[in-house]
Amino acid sequence: MSKLVTTGLTKAFSGLVAVNDVSFTMEEGEILGIIGPNGAGKTTFIHLVSGILMPSSGRVEFKGKDITYMPAHERSRLGIARTYQLIHPLENLKVIENVMIGAVFSRGKSLKEARRSAEAICAELGLERLERDTAQLSILEIKKMEIARALANEPEVLFLDEVMAGLNSDETLQLIATVKRIALERKMAVGVVEHVMGVIRELTQRVIVLEAGELIAEGPYETVSKNPRVIEAYLGGAA
Amino acid sequence: MANKRNAAIFAALIVAAVAGILVWRPTVIIYGLQAAGLYASIAIPMGLILGIVHIVNLAHGEFMMVAAYLTYMVCTALGIDPFVAMIPVALVTALVGFIVYKLTIRQALKAPELNQLILTFGLAISLTQLANLLFTSQTRKMSFGYVSASLSIGELSFGVYNFVFVAIAVLMVIGLRLFLTRTTAGKAALAVGQNPKGAAIVGIDVDKTYGLVFALATGMVGMMGAIFITRSSIFPAVGSPFTMKSFCLIAMAGIGNIPGILGASVLLGISENFLKAFRETRGWADIVFFVLIITVILGRSIKGKKA
Amino acid sequence: MKKALLVIMIIALAVSAFAMGAKEATGTAPAGAAPIKIGATWPLADITGKQGSMAAQQAVDEINAAGGVLGRKLELIVVDDELKADKGAAAIEKLVTVDNVDLLIGGMASGVALGQIPVMKKYAKVVISTGAASYKVEEGLGAEADWYFHLHPWDYNQGQSYADGWEAIQKKFGNVKIQKIFLAYEEGAFGKASFDASKTLFGGRYTFDGAPFKSAAFGGGDYASVLEAAKKYGPDLFLWAGYDADALPMLEQAKAMKFNPGIYLGAPPGWPADFGKSPLAENVMLYGMWAPSINGVSPASKKFYDGFMAKYNTEPATYFAPLSYSAVYIAADAIKRAGSTDTAALIKALAATNYASPLGQTITFTPSNIIKHQGVKNQKILQWQKGRQEVIWPFESATAAPVYPFPAWK
Amino acid sequence: MKLKSSYIVVAVLSVIAIAFPAFLGAYPLNVARSIMTYMALAISWDMLLRSGQISFGIAGLFGLGSYASALAVLRGGMDPMLSIVFAAAFAGVMAYALGFAILRLRSMYFSITTLALMEIFRIVMHNLHDFSGGPEGVVLPSVIFKGASPALYWLCLAGLFLTIGVSWFFEKSKMHLALTAIRNDETSARSSGVNIFNYLLIAFVITSVLQGMMGAIQVQSYGFTTPDTAFDANFTLLPLAMALLGGIHSTIGPMAGAVLLGVASEWLKLKIPYGHLVVYGIIIILVILFMPQGLFGLARKARRERSKAGASHE
Question: Which residue of B51, C15, D124, D295 has the fewest C-beta atoms within 10 A of its own C-beta?
């Protein structure tokens, strides 16, 4: 069974259609790229799937269950986690607490258990000195912390919204390897939004392309990147 | 389309209701508007500060009180009318406002909004108590014949002087609108109010703009304080109830919506006076204010969610 | 950190500077061993309490200058009750347990007195109260509180005395005719109590009605609707029970609305500075306990007034000043007769008080509805005439005849 | 080790607080009661503030508790001690019902609405003459414990201890994570499984219970209440100022602030009979300007700087 299915998902903001009739599926263990020019509706799409926004019409199913209008916190308990394009550290919590909250509230663990599993996840990601304030972290560390927080939910479906932005190429490579390894180990379905095409090529088995809210192409990166409509969309966006 | 028709029906209903009350109880409308004028003209300067500097100034009423005492001293010493004294008083209070801004508020701008709130609370206590030391709590009131100006229609006689406040409120709204849309300083203030960081990037001096807006608003409060003494007795605590009332009106109109303050005041003034017109509901006139505020705020939050 | 240290230093400096100044202002304790200590609480930020405490100090200084009591000096210790019940109660605890005062005087607001009563009961020290008019205070005290000497009339005493006063005035001045009475009362405890008391007292003899308004003292000040109700009712006697802030604005609105009752009467605890100078004030009547015009009929009043003016160079603005002055004299006199400050002896001596007070009347203590020792029971009816408050009734201390009716608006 | 020593400090302080009546007179105990009442209100206000919601309705729930307790005793013949529990529960039920509507509001709109609710409670009590005594309020037949100073002190202290205990629990349990997450970033909190509305409701109800309880203790200790005393705006503004001056988002901060302002107000009043409130206002202004994070915030900052210096030494 597919992990996540959307059918005809649409979101309109007072007349402006941000996501238009998008249907797609995500399977267990796959890493899916979500690409498109700026303003194509990628982040809105993730908002809809993760419950931060409610769709105007259409349907979202998780493992066959209808979750279209389920609140975000319940989806996170069900197993859908995500990071944000703009970093969202909880600045008044320590690093370890930032990571723990997913384990505490999505998985219902006690503080002790949550701390233990958060430490394990941070170790896996190479994040150290967990008693620090978030203000003392580098960008790479913040990104890692946000991934760790999402992972602490123990998700089955994970969306990473431009986690590589702002990192240098070494850091990017390092993070790609880690994400790939964890996704494989945990048999998660991972959706990755990225602008750096190299990252998409390295990381994903399949990509979907959004333009002006609509899904215009789908398939392995190599094929999609030769699709004339996709090329036009990117050039049009650039021009 | 549907929205427009709804609005038209709504407007027609309001007009019909007002006309109905006007025939049935004309004084409800007369006194309601007069009360609304006073509420609005005190709230508008506070709305300006809240909309642009984003500070809830708990010492708002105290600035008015200071201006009122200033006017009282000037008028009794020189024997002039408050309507003459209001110009120098407004200038002086604007200067005082500017100094207070520079010395205190500016230092707390970067701190959380709660700090600014308590800072102005401290200012309010100090100003009230200072006035109490200087003037004692005994009230003062100058007498002016024109305050009792009266109009008789048939058997109905009512005071017309308080319509002055309606005029002032309308002039304030028009004046501020012209200032904010037609002058460079006003446009800058509007830009700063909407997005201080963005405005700073475009090269607007945010600090200077805040200082200017604060001085302008306190100047307006000063003018109001001067005219206030024609209608009311003054004493150290005279301003504080108006702070809360103004704050509530601004929240009802929505922050940054200065003409909305006028509308909110009219709604409140008329509803209050409607309840006051009947023996059974007289004691409950105060509650209408707060019930309306909660209804409007909750209504807007539900509507906002739907959109 | 440096900034923080700086601020602490500034605060410390400011406080000590103010404290030094305050000490000088209150003066040094009178010389000689073991003074008799009188503890007092008033709201010092309010004109009533401020002048009350000043007048009490004046009385203490006068008595000490004349040699004190029982060869000992008097010492007055005043604590601000800040118009708050908890602060007022703490003030009593301090005066009794820390300062070891021999007796207590003072008080203004009923709301503070209610909070002080449980503490006063605990110590059962002699109290000479200068305030607290609400019958709720009397209920709170109970019949057992024989140590409580209440100078200020209860709200129902006041109502009763006005009823008597109007009866007497109508009898003496045939042209004064009252049938309908309307009371505009401020919506707080003070006004509501006045309304309840007036309704029961006037209800039988006159037709009576009333309506509440929000006092300008609390952000109100719009009297149109209450005046409209009054005008519709058409009273012979229009009364308002509010605060000094309401006095002139209400008069101005009444004129604007052409509301012209036969008698226009106000009953605030105090009047605005220079009310008499307003042209509208002429012939407005008022309820009160004292006015400077009483100096003409009462030597005690003149002595008090001249002393106050000489000491503070400002006119006493409310009757709380002569009332507080009286409290000190009554205490001193009772201690002299008791020969000690022992509570039981003092209660006995106080009960036998007979003091020609600056209020223009002799104060004695008699039972009221619940408590045993009630001082003043009557109020006075006065009238603004040529900028001065003249006493109209009681006739024995009257300083002028009433001008009736209240002149029509021009 | 560190944790244990802080436990010992807390235990010693508690014992000292409990033993105060043994070596303090009636007057300091009375002042202490005032300070403790404000302290409990400041802490409870701070507990909700940790979620980012600024309530201006402290006086509303405090007053509601006062009236619930007084009327339960007067009209229902309830035992005074029981009436305190009843009042706390009543405040909680009211907060629960109101919470459904108002906890969807944020920032200033939430604050204004709580303020308006407080005024509504006051006006209702003011106007229900036969039931609540109207503007003149209600007078109880007697004060609890016959007004014995130590007993009143311990009652107030018990209320304060309960408040501190709950606040401490908020700091150490997952409430801390939930409320801080909501305050910092609601979206992040939601994607981490935090049911925002539920946690806000829990915090609002619990803090309201505490405020209602303090109101009930107050009314039983003074034996009367009126609309103007029960819903005095000072019960909203002073706790706010205390929490801020002491340092928000902690238990110790509001406690420090309450001691500072409470002692300052009483001491100033004795030293400067006329005009002490001017100095009081100036103290508030100066502390806000020069210690924007409050007393405790300053200590926290100093500690952090020291640990940073230590870390760079390593």
Answer: D124
